[in-house]
Amino acid sequence: MLEIILSLFPIIIILFMIFVLKKSSIYTGIVSCIITAIIAISPKFNTSIILLPEPIIKSSLTTSIIVYILFFGILLFHIMEKAGAIKGIASSIASSTDDRIYQVLILALGLSPLVEAVSGFGLAVVVIAPILLALGFNAVQSTLISLISLVIIPWGTLAMGTIIGATLGGVSLEAMGVGTSIMMIPLFVYFSILVSYIAVGKKELIKRIAEVVTIGLLLGISVWISNNFASVELAGLFGSLTVMLAVYSFVQIRKIRNRNQYKAITTKNIEEKNGKLIFIKHITPYLFLIISLFASRIISPVNEYLNRYLNISISKYNFELPLLYSPGFFLILSCLFAIFLFRLNKKEIVDSVNLTIKKCLPVIITTFLFVSVSEIMTEATMFQVLSNLAAESFGYFFVYISPFIGAIGGFLTGSNTASNSMFIRLQTQTAVQIGLSPVLLATTQNTSSSLMTMVNPSRVALGTSVCKIGDKENEIQKKMGLVGFGTLIIIIIELIIYTIINQM
Fold first, then answer.
1. What whole-number distance in Å separates Cα of residue 69 and Cα of residue 64?
2. pLDDT of residue 262
3. Mean pLDDT across the stretch 347-353?
4. Which run of H or E residues covers position 322?
5. pTM, whole model, 2 decimals?
């Protein structure tokens, strides 16, 4: 019994400090790391103090993978922001139509996933909330829509959280990516309906339900196609651009229907054409990233070359970082391409780097600390104790507990990477104990954890701050709580269907 209590203690400490004491993630990580190390070397686990550096080294190596992707993803965002490209993309999208459903769909399921897929960090909220306000949506609508728009988080920062989850959980990245994308298809439809309902209300939504559902399905299917046939890292980018193209096509079809067939070319037509060219220029760095990353995954000679050279491998720690094959390398190329394309000066580049360092540093430290807790718990066999307990207590029904574990991690940390670091080993090891596929529970963890980050109090505070309705933070938190509850219900229904099919 004492062994179980001690194994649970690091997780309880993390939850207590974040949820009750409201301490920062870094402070919580430091304290929980120290406590976990003390428990590990206690007589009950008897882990030699000589072995403690091993988990720290493993955590440092894992964090280096994150740093390589995260830093240059955020840097690309700031370079494009300095060049005015982000604002240009946003204004082009916003001015392409005055139809409120199309505006919301292209922003919430197109632009927001595009920004999140490359940069992560919830920066999409900062990008689209002001646009929604400018389009005439009220502050509550803008806050809710911008928070719900963080739908692509499993593939945020080029799938960084999913990559780390697969690494720590010991499952195939491709299998986890495909599994998550399948689980996300009904959820994308749910979010598409939700943002449209918030924007225009029930009556107008019912009239346009076919279009709304189509866009949700299109996002889900395009993300699945990328995970299954191209690249897990590219899925968010591919899905967001597919949605933007689809909504833009709907807009053009509607314009053609309303336009006189023989209408002469007007100044407005010319302005629209110029606007399209400017939009293409602004989005070119993202297109460059997609094409180059896609080529590296599909073209065999390129794939082999990139994996052969500058590949850092440490077999003792089961660590591998192919510097040229990693998404981080293609982000570097995209940053250089954007600097050249937009002709940024030295000051703008330096400012972008400084802003990136300020934003990245807390995330890097937090991630390192949470991964360290996970590694120390693994070294001391604490996760083994907890998975045995879960298997004995719940048996096969643990599959229905799994989404709530992921949800707790996502809600409290606001980070899919941190949540996966905390809980994915518990999920996969329990799956083995009860005879389930580790990929299933890893997928469930990844999905529930990712989507509950949009309900995280710090994300809600960010949204209300941008929209200047801090006095309504509690109201927004409750509404986002309902969104999160609906998300978990859908995931559980999917698991029930999976169970029924699996037992047939």
1. 9
2. 44
3. 93
4. strand 319-322
5. 0.81
